[in-house]
Design brief:
The chain is an all-beta fold and 174 residues long. Helix content is 0%, strand content 75%. Strands 1, 2, 3, 4, 5, 6, 7, 8, 9, 10, 11 and 12 form a 12-stranded antiparallel beta sheet that branches. The protein starts with a strand and ends with a strand. The model has no long low-confidence stretch (mean pLDDT 86).
Amino acid sequence: LKIVQELLYGITPDFAVTLAVPFEEIKGESAQGGHVSRGLGDVEIRTKYRFYRKDYSGGTNQLAGILGVSLPVAQSTDDSSLSYLGALTGTISAGHWYLWGDLRYELKTESKGTKEGSVFFYDVALGWRPYIAEYNQVDFAPVIEINGELESKAIQNEQLKASGHTVFFALGFL
């Protein structure tokens, strides 16, 4: 279980800073049997800069870059480590259609004999609005989404831990 509180502050219309503070509950096994750890997770600080925006009648195209750092303050895990995030995200909203996409890379550092594998993420979502709502009305849109993770090798005490490629498909509503 992970509950995250985020504080987002828009410094300008194109530049924002986010602070994310998670509270985690992790269930695990030890020599003494099952146990549950609860506490503060790794705190994330992210910046987002929208460097391209083109508005037109009935839509908008936008691109933004994201940089972030995850600080190893977790109380509930032993393998907490400093990690860095870089991302590129884009949006096209035109009439009845939405298209979102992003590419993210998380570079993880070593902690207590464990070198977690860095992860490349990609996401694409397509949404369709059956009707165009007014600005102050609910904007209902079914969405189909593809998310992927490509994880590099993780090493724990000089032993290969894991690596792989995972793809997720999802249906939802906006």
